[in-house]
Please model this.
Amino acid sequence: MDIQLDGAARDWDTLHSSFLWNIPARYNIARACCGRWADDRSRFALYYEDEAGHTEAWSFWDVQQAANRLSNVLGAMGVMAVDSCDDFGLEMVELSPRTLDLMRQSFPAWLPPSNPLDIWPASYAKPFREIYIEALEAVMEDPKVDAAVTVHWLPALPRFEFFNTTEDLKEVAERHPDKPLAVFSYGAFQRQGMIQLESGGRVASYHSVDRCLRVLSAMWHYGQYTRAETAGAPQLPVRRDAARAIISMASKSGRPRLDAEGFDLLEAYGIKSPASRVAGSEDEAVAAAKTVGFPVALKVLSPQISHKSDIGGVRLRIGSADEVRQAYREIIAAVGNKAPGAVVEGVLVQRMGSGGQEVILGIKRDPQFGPVAVFGAGGLYAEVMKDVAFGICPLTRERALAMVKSTSIHRVLQGVRETPKDIEAIVDALLRLSQMAIDLPEIKEMDINPLLAMEKGCLAVDVRVVIGD
Model:
């Protein structure tokens, strides 16, 4: 398989697994090689969903045998890595002339540098750590290289401290965030060293070189899959500038959550909600109710209160001005009793929707998978029922529909014992949320619960938005 990347058409995909890197869809692999083999039985599994929505798992098992037979063979791992690259569809790329010229300055005349780099002979002329980092830095800077694999020896310390490159590796990886660095760690302090190496950095450490290559191969296949999966994601007409202005204003004020502004954010992306007004007193609440029309719901607005119903901060089906006043007083009292430290900014007076099925829609910025869309059964017991489906953004229309169909609530939406609901409107709302997640990375979480799915269209009744840097 020819996977050489055309530098003029380089297109980076994002793999959100345990690596947190921006990675290329295709790989050229350069390898800075030193050290010895160790026995290893390793497994790597990559889970994803194909176009039909079926869950797949790739499992790779390998047993490295007779480690002692390789322990004194310098450069043997590089030779074996070349063979493994062929097996996994990766290419051991020829290093650029600049990289080779730089390495010649440190390599002995009898060993011209090539890929993979065997740096042991050069370490006789320079301190090991110096030539190790010099070689790895040169490889990572090479424009023909998309990812690197190296060996990390963790001998007994402090006796062999001059071989400890843990912090050096983390610094090199930090300087090259666009290129994955996979490391084979072994030695007397393997476990401790791997934990230290992966702590707060951009390095992934494994028990064998073979496993490093298998993971990079899986990353490449995943990149191919996600490119095909998201190629048909639609670009819907939205008001991005208005949405960004809402986020910017909240960020400048130091507020981590949006309350009433969340509905304005949804409106900017074409997701409708019932008419509503913010009220800071009983009189304002009555006036707002008359404006939006009875019956109404009252919901407390407070930066410290996320689940309003849990503390008595919601009153529904209010049909008169007197009931509005009573509901306002009850909400203020309930908050004072159950959340005495909360700052109440007022209440949201919202016209009551009716005749719909409650579902939940949302987006979450996962630290591993990035922006993820959520759909499922909504209402007060959404977290208990856990009838939900997830999809990595951006969603295609087919993927959004598959998410809806994969849940139990889908049968209810189809019209079990009642009128069928507008599933296409739900799919459209999912696509708009997916686009919002891509357009507005400041949004860390958003829940629309409930979204009322009706015979025609849908309405976002409540929304919670968490923002951050």
Q: What stands out?
A: The domain at 240-351 is CATH 3.30.1490.20 (Dna Ligase; domain 1). Residues 16 and 369 are 4 Å apart (CA to CA).
